Amino acid sequence: MTISPRDAGLKLLREHALIAGEVVTGAARIAVDDPATGEIIGHIPDLGVAETQKAIAAAVEAFPDWSRSDPHKRAAFLREWARLIDENTEGLGALMALENGKPFEEAKGEVAYANGFIKWFAGQAERLIGETQDSPLGHVILTFREAVGPCALITPWNFPAAMLTRKLGPAFAAGCTAVVKPASQTPFTALALAELAYQAGLPKGALSVITGDAATIGGALTSSPDIRKLSFTGSTPVGRKLAEQSAPTLKRVSMELGGAAPLIVFADADLDLAVAETIKGKFRNSGQTCVCPNRVYVEASVADEYATKLAAEVAKIPVGAAFEPGVKVGPLIEDKALDKVEDHLKRVRAAGGKVLTGGARHERGGRFFQPTVTLGGDDTLFREEETFGPLIPVFPFETEDEVLTKANDSEFGLASYLFTRDLDRAFRIGRRIEAGMCGVNTGLISTAVAPFGGVKSSGYGKEGSIHGIDEYVDIKAVTLALK
Ligand code: SIN
User: Fold this and answer.
1) Which residue minimizes the CA distance to atom 7 of ligand 1?
2) Mean pLDDT (whole number) for 100-108
């Protein structure tokens, strides 16, 4: 008997937390809704400090055996976990679409993206390579890459699978154990992935998923001296607070925080390509992505042409609920997200910007907003605040120096994008732009093999790529005095 994608998703939905692989229900419950309808799809336990400490204790107990296990065994576990995820792509994609609202096809794409991290770090577990060096003291120095310890991993609602595996993949590869706190809006994908990890043979205690109030659980995780590493993806103000709370115990910390990505189009660019790639980059997760272009700068001589083409394409984007065929943009995660898009739109209009398409809440109501393009006005707001919604403000510029100054005049420095056919310019700007990542003639820069991370108030530390595992290992030097 075939079941609908929605039912396949609901089959994986578990209304509990997991401490050391054991189910925990808790008395108080938090409701999780489908952003497309507001309908409650399930509840999670509202756990607190005591349960978090239990999870930390389990991670501490599991750490010695797991961290000393053969890394090839950990690689085999990661590959088995990846196999189970591949096998459950439909169900996981549907579950994520239900709790996050992203289109089902896009959600399945995220499952594949997420699994890319597990597959990549399975290989990295096999390459925890040390070095030997002759010392000027007449000794030989050996280096070993050792797991940092039990980790706290705090993940956001916008990529419920990929942000989890981007942290757990390297953590497990290195031999770390982990306590995960998923966002309360989208906890079910994390719980389903954790269940599959245990099915794949993860030892008890190596992973707990704690649900509940973020400040309470975050406080318990960061204040614990047993947690040796914190990795957080989310907003800059929350990241700052967690870093502060982690300071007394001197934890290793990595932070993937907010962005305000500039996308620059020069007059020599392939404008059709620039339009298509702007749309691909901007409307991932309905504009709720840290690396989304937040402000588009176009050389004045082609600004009208680019903006007209962009608006014509954006006007055609199908908006709807996750399982409706052909849908490309879904609802926003919560009501206040729509208020923010409206506020940004109001401010760009007040500064003289013109709406070329969209410009209002969507006629189907609820949390849907029309994909919107504006032209002109003042870009200052967009240098400092992420819209995190389906609004593309376009601003004309005159010179390369002017646009580079504007692009860099921001507290943030996560992603950036550049469209030009001039290779010299691509190198020049690619090197001078203050961002952790720069896409040249592409709006898509995210993959397991690329180093992901920002500079300035966008955070520090790299995820994915050959560098991702460094966040979860300490280098130990053993000096041998050989006769
Ligand atoms: C994010 O929005 O935090 C992550 C986006 C990505 O992985 O591309």
Assistant:
1) 446
2) 98
Residue 332 CA to ligand 1 center (angstroms) comes to 16
Cα-trace Rg, the chain: 23
Q: Is the CB of 321 under 6 A from ligand 1?
A: no
- Take atom 6 of ligand 1 and give the residue whose Cα is closest: 446
CB-CB contact of 170 with 471 (8 Å): yes
H or E segment to which residue 31 belongs: strand 29-33
Q: What is the pLDDT of residue 313?
A: 98
Whether ligand 1 lies within 6 angstroms of the CB of 162 is answered as: yes
For 279-328, give the DSSP string: HHHHTGGGG--TTSEEEEEEEHHHHHHHHHHHHHHHHT--B--TTSTT--
Contact partners, residue 72, CB within 8 Å, separation at least 6: 125, 126
How far apart CA 29 and CA 42 sit, in angstroms, is: 9
- Residue nearest ligand 1's atom 1 by CA: 290
Question: Residue whose CA is closest, atom 8 of ligand 1?
Answer: 446
**Mean pLDDT, the chain, as a whole number?**
97
288 CA to middle of ligand 1, Å?
A: 9
Across the range 194-207, mean pLDDT stands at 98
| Residue of 256, 277, 385, 386 with catalytic role | 256
Write the Ramachandran bin of 377: left for phi over 0, alpha for psi from -120 to 50, otherwise beta. Answer: left
The CB of 374 under 6 Å from ligand 1? The reply is no
Mutate to test the pocket of ligand 1, among 163, 235, 285, 463 (most ligand atoms within 8 A of CB): 163
- pLDDT tens track for 129-148: 999 999 999 999 999 999 99
List pLDDT tens digits, range 15-30: 999 999 999 998 779 9
Give residue 153's pLDDT. Answer: 99
User: Which pLDDT score, from 0 to 100, does residue 400 have?
Assistant: 98
The 3-state DSSP composition of the chain as helix, strand, coil percent (nearest 5) reads 40, 20, 35
**pTM of the entire predicted model:** 0.97
Q: What is the pLDDT of residue 234?
A: 98
Catalytic-residue membership of 256: yes
Q: Is 146 a catalytic residue?
A: no
What is the torsional sign of CA 42, 48, 50, 54? positive
> pLDDT at position 483, please?
78
